[in-house]
Amino acid sequence: MKRECLKIIGTAHVSQNSVEEVKDAIYGQEPEVVAIELDRGRFERLMKEQAGIEEDDEISVSNIIKENKVGLFVASGILTYIQSRIGEDLDVKPGSEMIGAIEAANDIGAKIALIDRDINITLQRALNEMSAWEKLKFVFSAIGSLFASDDDLKDIEELKEQDTLDEIMEYFKEASPNAYKVLVKERDAYLAKSILDIEEDHVIAVVGAGHKEGITKYLDNPEEIPSIEALTSTEKKRKIPWLKIILAAIPISFVVIFFLAFINGIDIEGNLIEFVLIGGGAAFIGSILSGSKIQSAVVGFVVAPLTIIHPLLAAGWFSGLTEAKYRKVRRRDISNLSKVHSLRDLWNNNIFRILLVVIGTNLGVSVATLIILPSRVFIPLFLKIFGM
């Protein structure tokens, strides 16, 4: 690729003006290659949508929970919602400028280069970088966007005049600077590397406007681009997991207290029964209040005592897996997120309902573990052990 023959078009992903700008540039300049900010998966989905092929196959929520990909799934779903909501208000489908670029490239016989990093890699790296507090802030800010009025949504064309011009990234930047680094800065480098790898001379690259400045910087200084391994690895950085250590220490202390009480001849039968009833009852109540089926709540009740003393298990997983058997999730549930404008709409979405059961059950168990059980069971036992 010849640098002087490269044109980068920065677009707002849901702007009709961007669609027209892209097409005019491609028809006017007739490049050899049109490079677009898509990965293979999103490209294929857009092509199926254009061909009228509707995918409504069932999504295995069970596998998502078992493989511990709930965070990745939620982040992806929220991104889909945010972009669809903005595009719906402006009567422009997300990805329209990319579709316009593809159509124009096909019309003039230009090659199409997919230059973006796989979205699953990007989101996983972002989640790896986010602290627990940042994830919480992100979820709350995203939920707040569900009920934003039309006046609260930003003017899309104005986004092209800001530094962080890619509209979705604004939500991540507010909730997590670390995620923003992955979603924008890292992708600037990846997109620049992909452009540099194109062999043809005359190239038009169509990217979100928020990436244009960063891409240009890396193209001018290619030695600063990290290696492909550094940009695509999803292995989490080794850190001392203090929060996990503390959370693991709590159930371990419960076991130790029961053991010490037993070897000191203290009758612990009543305490064990109370432990089971409180732990299981809290899971049951949390599940029911989250709107679960009675079967899911019963499963939460049964497994909660075990999960309380096992730091690698969570009662909510089991309640969620049970709920997923009764609430089949299909791809339309994801697309329907764009139509959510009230709590009632959200309540009727199977994705939300299953995840709510997971959260509600775990929240109930957490209250029991951190507040009720220590005060009702373990502190009294501890005092008996030491004769206090």
Count of beta strands: 6
| Fraction in beta strands | 5-15%
Radius of gyration: 26 Å
Please mark out the parts with pLDDT under 50 across 5 or more consecutive residues, or reply none: 150-167
Roughly what is the average pLDDT, rounded to an integer? 80
N- to C-terminal distance: 79 Å
Order of helices and strands: EHEHEHHHEHHHHHEHHHHHHEHHH
Counting DSSP H or I runs of 4 or more residues, the number of helices is: 19
Can you list the strand order of the major beta sheet? 1-5-2-4
Could you estimate the helical fraction of the residues in percent?
A: 55-70%
Q: Strand count, sense and closure of the main sheet?
A: 4 strands, parallel
SSE-based structural type: alpha/beta
- Outline, from the CA principal axes? elongated
Description:
Helix content is 65%, strand content 6%. It is built from 19 helices and 6 strands. The protein has helices spanning 16-29, 40-50, 61-66, 70-89, 96-108, 119-129, 132-146, 156-159, 169-175, 177-196, 209-220, 228-232, 242-263, 269-289, 294-308, 315-326, 331-335, 343-347, 350-385; strands at residues 6-11, 33-36, 58-59, 111-114, 203-208, 329-330. Mean pLDDT is 80; it is low at 150-167. It is α/β, with parallel strands linked by helices and 388 residues long. The chain is elongated, with a radius of gyration of 26 Å. The strands form 2 sheets. It has a 4-stranded parallel sheet. Strands 3-6 form a two-stranded antiparallel ribbon.
